[in-house]
């Protein structure tokens, strides 16, 4: 089971602004806050997310093919998370909308894709019944 996911940053203050806003929409706040590392989530909740300045002192870089998926409660929250990301220094990687075809149960993958200010890729998603 995943406890938390960490993304690298070259500017912790900028990353904190971005993730503070995203975490607030998801109903969580900071659970650890150190000079070079901040984690958001709940101690007794699901997986959290953290931003850190690399321990080795080298520049943080983006993993090709790496993405953090944030589970939303509904389509409106997918839209809000996307808007919050772009308003806080993030960039667009795919506007909110359905992806693919519904499965045999009529469930559809609905998502928005964006990058944080350091270029780490995230999405907000839910499995939703076809309207």
From TrEMBL:
InterPro entries: Glyas_Bleomycin-R_OHBP_Dase, Glyas_Fos-R_dOase_dom, VOC_core. It comes from the Bacteria. Residues 1-127 form the VOC domain. This is VOC family protein.
């Amino acid at each position: 089971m995943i406890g938390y996911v960490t993304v690298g940053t070259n500017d912790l203050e900028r990353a904190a602004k971005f993730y503070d806003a995203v975490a607030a929409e998801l109903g969580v706040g900071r659970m650890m806050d150190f000079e070079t590392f901040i984690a958001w989530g709940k101690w007794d909740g699901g997986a959290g997310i953290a931003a850190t300045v690399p321990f080795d002192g080298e520049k943080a870089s983006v993993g090709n093919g790496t993405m953090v998926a944030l589970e939303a409660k509904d389509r409106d929250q997918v839209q809000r998370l996307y808007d919050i990301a772009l308003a806080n220094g993030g960039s667009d990687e795919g506007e909110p909308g359905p992806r693919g075809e519904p499965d045999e149960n009529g469930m559809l993958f609905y998502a928005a894709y964006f990058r944080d200010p350091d270029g780490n890729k995230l999405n907000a998603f839910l499995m939703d019944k076809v309207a």
